[in-house]
Amino acid sequence: MSSPEIASLSWGQMKVKGCSTTYKDCKVWPGGSRTWDWRETGTNHSPGVQPADLEEVVEKGAKTVVIGRGMSEALQVPPSTVDYLKRNGIDVLVLQTEKAVQEYNALAARGVRVGGVFHSTC
């Protein structure tokens, strides 16, 4: 399964190619995507992205994970989250969301088994 292209990004809205849903925040992995609902793991801007937010993406086969911290990079990514990915042999990129989407799409286009979590507002 290939990683789907993120077709569009604007404040508060993301579209993934092949999916009719418009996301505010989303998870993407080789073969699929879904809404990233922070309430599932108790995520907030601080302390930020938790390993539990990424488990699904890793379990679905991502070998590289891109984390989009928001348009103004308000979403934090603690060292424990990066360490979780590295301990599992996963490459990780933490970027402002517009840059994260560009990098994710470039990796997906090269056939990398890339996944990610993306915050589309602050």
UniProtKB/TrEMBL annotation:
Gene3D superfamilies: MTH938-like. Coiled coil: none annotated. The keyword RNA-binding does not apply. Pfam families: DUF498. The keyword Cytoplasm applies. GO terms for biological process: positive regulation of fat cell differentiation. GO terms for cellular component: cytoplasm. InterPro entries: AAMDC (IPR034096), MTH938-like_sf (IPR036748), NDUFAF3/AAMDC (IPR007523). It is found in: Cytoplasm. Keywords: Cytoplasm. Belongs to the AAMDC family. This is Mth938 domain-containing protein. It comes from Apaloderma vittatum (Bar-tailed trogon). The lineage of its organism: Eukaryota, Metazoa, Chordata, Craniata, Vertebrata.
